[in-house]
Amino acid sequence: MALLEVENLVSGYGKLAIIQGVSLAIEPGDFGTLVGPNGSGKSTLIKSIVGLATVFEGKITFDGSNITKRKPENIASLKLGYVPQISNVFTDMTVRENLEMGGTIIRESVQRKKLFDRVVNLFPLLSSRENQKAGYLSGGERQMLAIARALMAEPKLLILDEPTAALAPIVADQLFQKLSEIRSELNVTIVLVEQNARKALSLANRGFVLIQGKKAFEGTPEQILKDTEIIQLFLGELTI
Ligand SMILES: Nc1ncnc2c1ncn2[C@@H]1O[C@H](COP(=O)(O)OP(=O)(O)O)[C@@H](O)[C@H]1O
Ligand SMILES: [Mg+2]
Question: Model's pTM, two decimal places?
Answer without folding.
Answer: 0.94
